[in-house]
Amino acid sequence: MTSHCRWGILGTANIARKNWRAMRVAGNSRITAVASRSTERAEEFIRSCSQSDPVPGGVAAVGSYEELISHPDVDAIYIPLPTGLRKPWVIRAAEAGKHVLVEKPVGVTADDVREMLAACKRSNVQFMDGVMFMHSRRLDALRQTLCEPETIGQLRRITSQFSFQAPEEFLKGNIRMHGELEPYGCLGDLGWYNVRLTLWVMNYEMPVSVRGTLIDAAGSPDSPSTVPMEFSAELQFKNGVSAGFYCSFQTEIQQWAHLSGTAGSLLVSDFVLPFYGARVGYRVSQPRSVQTGCDFDMVDRSTSVELDEYSNGRSDSQEVQMIRTFSQLVLDGRIDPSWGEIALKTQQVLDACLASARNGGALIPLRD
Fold first, then answer.
1. CA distance 291 to 90
2. Which stretch of DSSP H or E encloses residue 321?
3. Which of 84, 263, 264, 324 fits a disulfide with 26 by CB distance 3.0 to 4.6 angstroms?
4. What number is the average pLDDT over the span 321-343?
5. Model confidence pTM above 0.90
6. Residue 11 to residue 36: CA distance in whole angstroms
7. What distance in Å separates the CA atoms of residue 28 and residue 20, rounded to the nearest whole number?
8. 68 and 41 share a domain?
9. Which run of H or E residues covers position 262?
C-alpha cells in the first residue's frame, strides 16, 4: 500500500494554489497531476506554484479534465471549478473511482448535492467540501467551552458576518459575479461559511425555519442574471436558539462569530481565515453590572483562549489538516459519510435562504 494519497487538481482556480501547498506539506499526500483546458495553462499553473512550493519529482500537466479523471497515478481529485460547472465532473470523478474534495458551494441546488453523494456512495469513494476551518484545532476548544454550563450557559443566539469590499475589477470580471457560474454570489462564496458554523454550533441540527433578505444584487457585464451582493438571514431552531448572519461583497473584511448564552458569550474574530500568526483563539466574556451607591460600573470579566496553530500553510494550519485528514481516509480505505451529510445540510439551508429572499422574505420551513 502506498504511503501517500496521490492528488490531481482539476482546474487552476486561484484557491487551488493554497491547497497545492497544503498537499505538499501534509506529509501523507503528493500532487501528481494538474489539469486545465489546455496543457499550456496547466504547465503555467504548475510552474507558478513550483516557484515557491516545488514538488519533488515534478507534477504532470494534463490538457483535459477527462484525462485527469482517468489518470492511473491519481487517487483523489480536488475540484475548484465554478459551482455551475461542478456537478458532472464530481460525478465522473466518482464513477472513475477517484475520491473527491470539492470547493463550495457544493452545488446549484441540494438535489445536485444528492446526485454527487449518490455517485460517491455507489463507487465507495470519499466526498468532502473544502471548508478549511472545520479542520482547525480551535473547534475542539470551542466545543469544550460551549459545553461548560458555567461559562456560556444555555446557548440562545448565534450571529456571524463574513464580508469583503470587492474592487471594481472583481465586480466586472470575477466569476463570482456571473449568474450561471456562481448563481449564489456572496451567499455561496461567503454565506456558506456562516451557515456551516451555525450548523456546527448546533451539532448539525437543522433549523425549523429560515428567512432570507436579498439586500443588493448585481452582475458582471457578461452575466445573464444578477447574483446576491449583500445578504442577511435569520434561522430559528426548535429549542429556541436563533441565528443570524450577514455576508457581502460590499463591506470591509469581517469574519467574526458571536455566540450568546444565559451565562456569557464567546467571540471569534477570525473564524474563517485565521489572522496571520502562530496562534488561534477566541474571547469569552461574562460582563457584570455592579452598583455601589451612585456608582454604576460595567465590569468586563473577559478571558482569552489561545492555541498553538499556524495560520498559513504550515504543518498544523487548518488547510493542511484538511488535506491530511482526507488523505488518511483514502490511505486507510475508510469512508466517512458524515462529510457529505454536512455538505448537504449546508446546501439545504442555503437553498432555503435564497428561496425566501426571492419570495419577498417569506418564512421557509425546514425539516431535520
1. 62
2. helix 318-332
3. 324
4. 98
5. yes
6. 5
7. 13
8. yes
9. none
